[in-house]
Structure formats: C-alpha cells, structure tokens
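Appendix B, record 7
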Amino acid sequence: MPAVCKKCGERGILKRPKTGEAFCKECFFAVFESEIHETITKSKLFKRGELVAIGASGGKDSTVLAYVLKTLNARYDYGLELILLSVDEGITGYRDDSLETVKRNKEQYQLPLKVVSYKELYGWTMDEIVKQIGLKNNCTFCGVFRRQALDRGAMLLKVDKIVTGHNADDIAETVIMNILRGDIARLQRCTAITTGTEGAIPRCKPLKYAYEKEIVMYAYFKKLDYFSTECIYSPNAYRGYARTYLKDLEKIRPSSIIDIIHSGESLSVKSEVKMPVQGNCTKCGYISSQPLCKACVLLEGLNRGLPRLGIGKSNKAKLDDLMKSMSTEVKTTDKDTADKTDKPTVGQKLTT
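Structure tokens (predicted):
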C-alpha cells in the first residue's frame, strides 16, 4: 500500500528521517519551513530592521539557510536586510570551487556578497599552513582563523547578527566531542542557539533543530545550487569520529540527535567549576579568555617557524615565553600598526 501524506492525504513520496512520517513534496517543504520559522520566532533571533550576515560556504547547509531565510523574511515580513558573507581559506580545488557556487547563489537570491580571505587577514592560506603543520592538526588552525575571519568580515559590514548553517547533527556531534574531551564549559555553551552576546557580534543558528538528512532532501527537491564536496583536509578531523558514532546511533534510534541536543540544553554547571572569563586579546582586540587570543598565538607560531606552538600541552613552556614576549611587543608596536592601515589584521586592534 503506497504511503499517504500525513498533511494532505495525497500520495507521499518521502519519509522524514526526523519523525518517520510520510509527506508529499509540497507538504514537506511547508513543514520544514514552518519549523524553522517557529525556531526563529520562539527564540526571538531577530529584530525588525537588523542587518544580518549569512555565513555562506556554498555547501548544502548555508545554501538552504540563505534560501529559507530569504523566503521566510518575505513571507512573514521579518524586516531584515540580508547579505552573504564568505570566507576564502585558500584551499585549492575546494574553496575556490565552492565560492563559485556562492557567487551563483548571490545572483539567484539577489543578495549582496562579501568575501574575506585568510591571505588578506593573516598573510597565510590553508594550503600554505598545511605545508607547515601537516594534516594532523590543520583543522585547529582553520577553525580558529575561520571563526575570527567571519567576525572581522561582519565588523567591516557593520552587521547586527551573523547566522550560520549549523544543523541538529552538527550540534549533537559537538555535544559528543565535548563530553569525550571533558570540556564542561563548552558542553553547556555549545547547544545555545545564539552565542556571542557577551561582546562579539551575536551568532544565531536557525537550523538548530533541522536534521542534516532533511536539509539534503529539501535542497534536492527544491533543486538548489550547492557544492557537495567535503574539504580535502578534513578526513582525519576529530569531528569525523563523533559523526560516525552519531550516524550509527541514528540508524537505531532516529530521535538520538534531538535527544542529545536536549540533554546538552538541560545541563547545569556546578558552582565549583571554573568558567572562563571573557576579555579581549591584548594584541588584536578580539574577544578572548586569555591575554592573547588563539589566532594570535597560532599565527605567531607560523611566522616564527614554530607551527605546532599552541597545540597540545607539550609546548606549554615555549608558549608561555612567546606570550610574554608578544605582550611586551604589543605595547610598543600596536599603535604604529593601527596608524599604518585601517584593514583589520591580526596584530591590529579590532574596530567596529
């Protein structure tokens, strides 16, 4: 007996991975979009008149996010001004190709686009960094630099919010990773739908409760233009092991993804657990719980021919010495650097 659409009673052509319910194509679109609208409104992610940057990589998540957010903004009159913001990490054969997809999305969705690059901000591309550090720890560099690059691009655009395409699978994976690392502080923070309210530009995750499989189905049936190749430097990433574990759980119990997220949301940190105190990097001004932010430490290691500095605990003594010397250098060079250029680079104070 053919499946029947749960909403309209017509012939169902797909089964939602999230619930197992059958839907026709149009009803699936309606349910998927209404759930994201509910997430946005219940969490009060936006205010009318805000300028919102969509972190656009060209992949399925950010492409669906851009399409749905533009659709909902018009349908429900959010009153938002949307702009695409992309980061070019400098990965030949991957990011250069995916950015072509973003440029097509710009035309398809009639949204402005801003691209910032690692080479422009840091003087290094990921291709150059991988030659120095190898494939084992390259994701540490990319994660730290990418997060800061997105903020720097957002500051140049003077946006009110940044939205990213993090989906339910991504968040559940992060919960698992933080449990395995025993990272109590991040374990509580990683399920928040909005972060950065403590000083940085707020980041929101409208796709927080959307399953990755359903995002793929939505993109496929909507015939959206997206780039589907995985990063060539990520096969050995720690997250990959958490992802495999989560997919195995999902096969047995599809609700595992949402259950893990809800578990993270319900956690409360004991009063005796020392939480990091947010401040600002003394060298570049970026938000940091240490005197020097991670990006400045990693970049200084690269520039001094010590690419593994700041990774792991084995180089702690060298790192302490470096931080002391950098702190001294900042006092004498920071003002001169700021006077020479208004381009935001590591080593120069961030300005809005």
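Remarks on this record: The first helix runs from residue 25 to 42. Confidence is low (pLDDT under 50) at residues 337-352.
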